[in-house]
Structures are given as C-alpha cells and as structure tokens.
Amino acid sequence: MIEIEHLSKHYGDNIVVDDVSFAVGDGEIAVVVGTSGAGKSTLLRMINRLVVPNTGRVLIDGQDTATLPEDELRHRIGYVIQGYGLFPHRTVAENISTVPRLLGWDRRRIAARVEELLDLFQLDPGEFAQKFPHQLSGGQQQRVGVARALAAKPALLLMDEPFGSLDPVIRGKAQDDLLAIQRRLGTTIVLVTHDMNEAFHLGDRIAVMDQARLLQYAKPADLLTHPAEAFVEQLVGTAERPFRLLSLVTVKDAMEPGSAEGEPITVSATLRDALAQLIWRGRPALPVTDASGAPVGRISVDGILKHGRASLS
Amino acid sequence: MSTRAVTFRAAALLLLVVFVTRPQLFAFAFVPLTANNAPAIYNQGSLLALTLSHVRIVFLATLASTILAVALAIFVTRPAGREFLPLSRSLVNIGQTFPPIAVLAIAVPLVGFGEKPTFIALFLYGLLPIFENTLAGLTEVSPRTLEAARGMGMNAWQRLWQVELPLALPVILAGIRLSVIISLGTATIGSTVAAKGLGEVIIAGLQSNNVAFILQGGLVVALLAVLIHDGLGLAERAAARRLGRPLDEIA
C-alpha cells in the first residue's frame, strides 16, 4: 500500500506538483496520465525521492519514506524510465544483477535470479545473458529494463513512459506481457504515460493530472462515466468514450446463453474486440468459446451495446 | 587484427629491440652518413640504457599527469567542484602553453640538473590532453544512464566507479595516448639539462656534426612512439568495442 499525502514541489515560483494525494492498493496498477509538463514525472520521482518534495509525504506500507536512507529506499523500489537507461558497458546479465549486487547477494543466488527473470521475459538465457545492450532490439532492451527493475523482488515498481520508445506493434505486446507478469508477481505499479489507450489498457486506477494538480483519481469506468472536470472529459475523448468502456469489459460479462454461427470469440476478449469482429463478419451474433475452445454461449451486438452506454454502467 | 598487421607490429618491435641491444649490427647503414672517420654508431653510452631511462621518465611523468588530470576532471564534474572548472581549465592550459624548454630554464635553478626538471616539464605538458578528454568522457555519459543508476540506489561513489569511469574509459585512454606520444618526443630536450635519455644521442650528433647519431636517436624515439601509440590504440579500441561504439567515434 502506497499513500501519497499532500505532495507538493516547486522550483522557485514554478509549481510543478500541487498538493497531490492518492493511495495505491497492493498489487494494483495506478496510471498517472496528463499532458506533458503536467508534473507526472516529478510526482513519480518523489516516490523514490529522486526529487525531494517541498511538502507532503509518501508512506509505503505505513512507513514514511523520508525516514529511510535514500539508497536503501531505492533498492526496494523498481524503477524503469523511457529509454531504459541500460548500462552500455555491462552485459544483459550484469545489468539485471545491478541491485542484487548492491545488496550483496551471493553469486549463485544472483545467477539463479538472472536466469529466472530472463525466462520470465522470454529471453533465452543462453543467447541473451552475455549480450550487450547495443546488440538488442528496442523490445528486448525494454524487457531487460523491466527485468533489471524487478531483480531484487521489489514490492513496488515505478515506470516513467516505459513503452514510449517502442513502435506501436511491439508496444501492445509489451503492455500485455507487463500485465501478465504483474498479475503473476502481484507487484504494485505506478506508471506514468501520456497515452490514454495505455492508461485504460493497464490501469486499475487512473490519476489524471493537469497543470501540477491531480484532477481525478478513479477506476477507468468511473473516469468515463463520471468525469470530475471538463479537462478529464476532454482528455478521455467524448467520441472515444463508449469504445473505451467496451474495452474495459470482457465477453464473459456480456455473454448470453445459446449458440450462433461463425468464427468463435474467446471469453477473455474485450467487448471492443468482439464488436469489431461482429461488424467485420457482418453478423448479429457469434459463438463464444472458453480457453480450451469449447463453446460456452453467444455474444450479440445488442448485448455488447448495453455495456457501452453511460446510464447502464 | 589481420596477420599482416601482426607481422608488421612484430617486425617493428624486433627491429627496435635488436637495434638498441646490438646497434653495431646496423653500422653498415650509418657509415655513409659519417665524415672524417667519425664513429657510425653512438659510442658514448649504451643505447639500451638510454632508451630505458627515456621510457622510464615518460612513464613516470605521464603517470603523474594522469593521476592529477583524472582526479581534477572527476572533481570538477561533481556538484561540489563544478565552480572550479574554469580555474582548473586555465591552470591546465597554462601547463600546455608554457614551452617545455622554458619550464626547464625555470626549473633548473630551483631543483637542479638531471631528471627532476625534465619530469616537471613533461608532467605539466601532459596534463591538458588527459584533463580535457576525461572531462569530455565524464560529461558525455548519458543522463538517462545516470538517472537509472541513481534510481536503482547507487550512491555517488558507486555511480563514479561502476558507471561513469568505465563509460569514459576509451576517451580517457585516448587522452593518455596523446600525452605519452607528446612526452616521448619532448623528453629528448631533457638531455640539455643532463637527464638520461635518447636526447643525448641527438645532442651528441649535433655537437659533433654527426648525422648518423642524430638519425639513430630520432629513429629509436620514432619507433618507440609508433609502437606505444599502436599498443594504447589497441587497448582503447578494446574498451570502446565493449561499449558497442564504432571506432571512428573515438577522439
């Protein structure tokens, strides 16, 4: 549990973060969105004290972070930045073992951890452990950056535009991989982005910032149906709203009993994807199958549309 | 490295070693340069001993320059030392602009004849390339890399030793190489103040109007310079290759 209480930061007369408070539950992903210059990164960097706040405090599991030595605090918090900041003179294995080495883990434990992480991120240890960062593709560098941040098993991971330098195709895959790994490890994540799609895709809760202030901190669906200010409404995009709502619900929740003809859709797909399929195939309904491929019901256009309406959600 | 490059280097090294240990073997080549039955090969001391003391003083002076210049560059790139950057730059620049021969003239009355004034002149002359290159190397480290290092909880000392210096190493080595090469040539003037070195051979040649001596002294210094330049260049490239940088990026 991270509690951010009345954090403020100013440089001279320039207020960068103005009295921001919110809390992130264990195992949750909180996404901070906003235009550039809104103070998102400064807010994030105050959590691991790369920026020292002027007022306010951050509690991690009830402990005030200002009471801990800075380096010790940072050893316990994973940190991923845009461009990843991998050490160019160190191999992938050495990069990943940075924090464990600072913590003085023994060699065997470090080697085992590196191998475990490379496997987790689908990088063959035999092939990648001894490579240097410049020998990796952008997507591989991104995975090594996240693996390095997770090396000492931090309970909290801070990510500043972690997918910002990936092309759109790889970005989607990287986001899905991060979600899968996060679900598996139960890591709490605070992620900063300016990409609304990314925020809705990843966030359990979304914090919207503008001009140093936190405008709203809510679940994605609430942000769409009950925007606190005109700016939030504008940022989520009025034309996009129904589709974003659909993307937050899976087929499972809108499924009807019965059967239908055509290419089946899996229960774990989002309603947005299902609707896209229905439109594309030109059908009023399609069959739904579970993960093993067994038919479990049907999904219809009418059933989906109900979930995209403000009044019903 | 191609076989040809290896052969060429080995040949140059062999030539140097044989020449300084058995100079008489090469007498035939120098005889045509002498007049009036003057000796063709330097006969007032051992070429080997002179070469060794020449290399020794260059090594010691460069070592001292490296220690001071690198320490100074590290200091002025820390938050506490930033305001000393212009001052350090001026001091190091003075060391370079002051001609070594003038340094000798000033140093001799203070420390006497021999190796000491030569050491001082070479030390001052060698500071600039190492200081400027270390400075460039340290300031070129990507801010992202440093941000990541801080964010992972490396303290200032760990960032310096584990990140900044290793990344700056190829550029620092290039500075040291430049300084060594300058010193190898400049050290010959040390013989004017009685420092043991290859300058003795050249000066003996000038005094007795013996072109053979001048050529021998120059040849040994040149061979040394080429071989050391090449060796340090290899070390630099090895360090740069680890960083994945193309070779031509090294200054």
Classified by CATH, the class of the domain at 51-197 and 223-249 in chain B is Mainly Alpha
**Biggest interface pair, counts:** A-B, 28 and 20 residues
CATH architecture name of the domain at 51-197 and 223-249 in chain B: Orthogonal Bundle
Q: Tell me the strand order in the biggest sheet of chain A.
A: 6-7-8-3-9-10
Largest beta-sheet characterization of chain A: 6 strands, mixed
Distance between the termini of chain B: 21 Å
Quick structural overview:
Chain A has helices spanning 40-47, 70-75, 92-96, 98-102, 107-120, 125-128, 138-150, 168-185, 196-202, 220-225, 230-236, 241-247, 271-281, 301-306; strands spanning 2-11, 14-24, 29-34, 55-60, 63-64, 77-81, 156-160, 188-193, 205-210, 213-218, 265-266, 285-289, 295-300.
Structure description:
- The complex is a heterodimer of chains A (313) and B (251).
- Chain A contains 14 helices and 13 strands.
- By secondary structure, chain A is α/β, with parallel strands linked by helices.
- In chain A, the strands form three sheets. In chain A, strands 6-7-8-3-9-10 form a six-stranded mixed sheet, sandwiched between helices. Chain A has a four-stranded antiparallel sheet with strand order 2-1-4-5, with helices on one face.
- Chain A is globular, with a radius of gyration of 21 Å.
- The relative contact order of chain A is 0.12.
- The model of chain A has no long low-confidence stretch (mean pLDDT 91).
- With 251 residues, chain B is an all-alpha fold.
- Chain B has a domain at 51-197 and 223-249: MetI-like (MetI-like fold).
- Chain B is built from ten helices and no strands.
- In chain B, α6 (115-139) crosses α8.
- The longest helix of chain B has 32 residues, at 211-242.
- The radius of gyration of chain B is 21 Å and the shape is flat.
- Mean pLDDT of chain B is 89; it is low at 246-251.
- The chains are: A alpha/beta (313), B mainly alpha (251).
- Chain A binds chain B through residues 48, 50, 70-75, 79, 81-89, 98-99, 102, 132-135, 148-149, 158, and chain B through 142, 144-155, 158, 163, 166-167, 242-244.
